[in-house]
Design a protein that fits this description.
The protein has a single domain (1-100), classed as E3 ubiquitin-protein ligase SopA (Pectate Lyase C-like, 3 Solenoid), CATH 2.160.20. It contains 2 helices and 2 strands. The chain has helices spanning 78-84, 92-98; strands spanning 15-17, 35-37. Strands 1-2 form a two-stranded parallel ribbon. The longest helix has 7 residues, at 78-84. It is globular, with a radius of gyration of 12 Å. 33% of the residues are buried.
Amino acid sequence: MSAAKFDGADMSEVVMSKAYAVGASFKGVDFSNAVLDRVNFGKANLQGAVFKNTVLSGSTFEEAQLQDAVFEDTIIGYIDIQKLCTNTTINAEGRAELGCR
């Protein structure tokens, strides 16, 4: 999935495990009710992506673009939240949904 383009795709209820999506584009993608297990989203463009009720276990977002991403009811571990909250592109609403401090 590296450097691929999935902009606007409906990926609701998808199950992705150990995917390598570095540099891929997922602008506006709907990941609602998906399971994203150990997916590497490094440097990916996830602007406006919807992670509503999504399981994000062990997924990484280093240098990913997360402007306007929705994290409503996202299921994510405490350590993963700490790492995700270091991403400065997440807006105030997304930070509140994640519980960033």
